[in-house]
Amino acid sequence: MRLIEKAEKSLLRFLLRPLTGSISYMLVVVFVLFVPRRGPNLMLFYIVLPWLLIGVIALNMSFISMVFRRFTLSEAIKRNHALEHGTVFLLRRRFGGKARIGGLAEANGFRVCGVQKKEHVLEAFEELIQEFGRGNSQLIISMRCGTNIAVAQGLGIILLSFSTVLMLLSEADRTACLVTLSFIVLLYFLLRTGIGNWVQSRFFLSLAFSNARIQSIYRVEKKRFWERNPVFFVKTVIS
Fold it and tell me: What is the pTM of this model?
């Protein structure tokens, strides 16, 4: 049973990686640009293409979800999101990069998993508040945040869609298509982290408060597949 659970978690992690969705869309673009659409291939093209697009949509659901959440995320969650990021960063720094510590923000606090003692969470939170007092707010930016995954997927979709339309309209030959796609891949890897961090800080995090403290910390049950016991809920008071 544990092997099945591990396999399911590994599969979900693979599907949620930004490269998985981007590569799937790249394959669709290659199919559209390089498969001849004449004779018997024409029917095959229009039969296969819709199924490929359904797969791409499924593998890029985190981007679609992010677009929806952008209009529903409350200020309270943004503030706790920033506190959660900073607390988790300091916990990972204390226990090492291999520590499987994660978090999830909610309206009245945030969850932290993978830490053995709640005292460790409290110490990290207090250190974070001290860092804020010194003007060090960059601790809240996390490359492991789901926002960065979604932005990377969105960037891949936008770059590939725009370039594909241009290549189809200009009737570019195979060489021009290969050069363009190679450039798009390079541009994707150069821009995805910077744009992801900017979107994360601009739209999904908030430091618009003068004071934050912990009201209570207590253990809760897992509710996400990636959470690792023990899981603590940190109830915050923000003003």
Answer: 0.79
